[in-house]
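User: Reviewer 2 asked us to show a designed sequence for the structure in our supplementary figure. I'm pasting the structure tokens here. Could you produce the per-position amino acids so we can include them in the response letter?
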């Protein structure tokens, strides 16, 4: 079983939306088909464990539990969407969940993006995922970029999350992305046909990715094929 942060790092480096943690069978497929990507995740997990001590301070259990519930609805909707290969009913359900989560965030994050002292490190990761999917309100999503950068500086989020949100904001503004985290499929019913969205200065993309603790693009593309090919193509656990 992949370390929690390694699985979270996978989420932080995959396209479209910080992808929910993979099923165990997909973990096995990544380990078998993308060994250098797996090695990168293992190194990141070990480094992260050393530099992020548990936060001090009193947690807000009610806020943490509410956040976790919204996160779980997001994860469930996206898993169903991937399994259905982007079929219309699952797409509509996912977008409805995103709208509900956005409305909740605009109320609960009005005083700022939650900290680990409030909701724990896992809660901060879950809050990031919800913001990453707040495409229905670009102004709100953009307003979260600075506090998310601050959370990463405190060691509460990986730098890859910052890169992903920057790319998301840039693409929403019609600009090329910077770190190559955003892909999309132009083939209906085939999420495995993901293509890199427009990216600035491709010649120096790998250096920019490395500066944000993102794995090389080839490893990233390998994992995309595994995750979006559908669970039926992953080996049994």
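Assistant: Here is a per-position design you can include in the supplement:
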């Amino acid at each position: 079983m992949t370390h929690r942060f390694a699985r979270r790092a996978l989420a932080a480096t995959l396209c479209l939306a910080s992808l929910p943690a993979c099923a165990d069978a997909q973990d096995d497929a990544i380990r078998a088909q993308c060994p250098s990507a797996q090695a990168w995740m293992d190194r990141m997990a070990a480094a992260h464990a050393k530099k992020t001590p548990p936060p001090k301070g009193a947690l807000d259990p009610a806020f943490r539990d509410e956040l976790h519930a919204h996160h779980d609805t997001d994860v469930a909707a996206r898993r169903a969407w991937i399994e259905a290969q982007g079929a219309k009913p699952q797409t509509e359900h996912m977008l409805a969940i995103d709208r509900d989560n956005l409305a909740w965030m605009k109320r609960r994050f009005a005083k700022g993006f939650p900290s680990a002292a409030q909701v724990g490190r896992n809660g901060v990761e879950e809050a990031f995922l919800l913001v990453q999917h707040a495409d229905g309100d670009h102004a709100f999503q953009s307003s979260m970029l600075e506090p998310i950068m601050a959370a990463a500086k405190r060691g509460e989020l990986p730098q890859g999350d910052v890169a992903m949100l920057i790319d998301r904001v840039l693409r929403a503004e019609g600009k090329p992305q910077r770190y190559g985290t955003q892909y999309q499929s132009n083939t209906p019913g085939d999420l495995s046909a993901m293509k890199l969205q427009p990216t600035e200065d491709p010649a120096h993309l790998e250096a920019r990715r490395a500066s944000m603790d993102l794995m090389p693009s080839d490893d990233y593309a390998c994992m995309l094929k595994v995750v979006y090919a559908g669970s039926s193509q992953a080996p049994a656990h």
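For the response letter, you might also mention the following. Strands lie at 183-185, 194-196. The two ends are 10 Å apart (CA to CA).
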